[in-house]
Task: structure prediction
Amino acid sequence: MVRPNGHEDSTQVSKIAETIIDAITPWYEGNRNSKASVDSNVMCAGLYITEFLAEAYPLTSQVYAADTQVKGASGAKAKAILADHDEKRKFTREGGRTSRKTIRHAEKLADVVNSAGARARINDLASFERHAVARLLQAWFVVRVRDDYFGRQKINAEIDPSWSIRAVVASLIAAGRERGGNTAGAIVQHLVGAKLQIRFPDEEINIESYTTADKQTGRAGDYQIGHTAIHVTMAPSIAVFQGRCADNIRQGFRPRVLVPKDQLGRAEVHAEDAGIANKVAIQSIEDFIGTNIEEVASFRQDHVRTELRRLLDLYNHRIETAEADLSLKVEIPEHL
Result:
């Protein structure tokens, strides 16, 4: 990974990095297509070329090319570079390895960096200072990945209006788990919020980021309806029942814990162990959302389709309102 290994002149390093970024920016923006998106191969080329810059300048083909591909290009390599900048979401599986576009982008980018680097006198830097410049350039490309890849990649799950709503929710949870990280947790949190907005239109249903703790809001749970405190969790722990649910009971609330269907058994065991099994309701997220939406739709197929669309629209609105990561939005099928 690109890491400075000394105490560089930060002012000089920053100025050189800014000069090169000023040259890279029009090259990068020039690769936007008619839909204003940037191919991931462009981003991969940026991650790799900045990695090579840490070790060599100028960037000749002998440094970065291997036949018709970038040396070492792979999904694992791209993942490692991103992780080194604390970005751990799933990027492209191949990391540009199987596309000849990547090497062409790398060639053009190398020319830009070589030219701008010469103007900025990058050769005057010590090796560890060049490492620091490369690190800053690579961080710039990581931001591009966040904005132009993750920021535009919506949750893409199989959504069929002929399915039960329960099955649609299960499909969204599976898509969240596939993406990894906290994605599934954020999905279920906001799906539950959207469902509550539909079921209780006269109630003010709170909208906060998935990472906002109950104690920060002063509520008894993730959501509070009447005397019921609702807790939404992908992985129920004993602490949920011994802590939050037990507190709810002492304060006169009726706790309800929502978990994925495959976590029901685990949640029920924890409730028994906490000695509150008869005072806490445990329900699958799939059923909690699915049953209510179908009831609101009067169990009519045409109304179910309408309410499913409303659920997903409200979900996306909640993401836009509360989350910085807009890639949590769901891709809503045109036929819905």
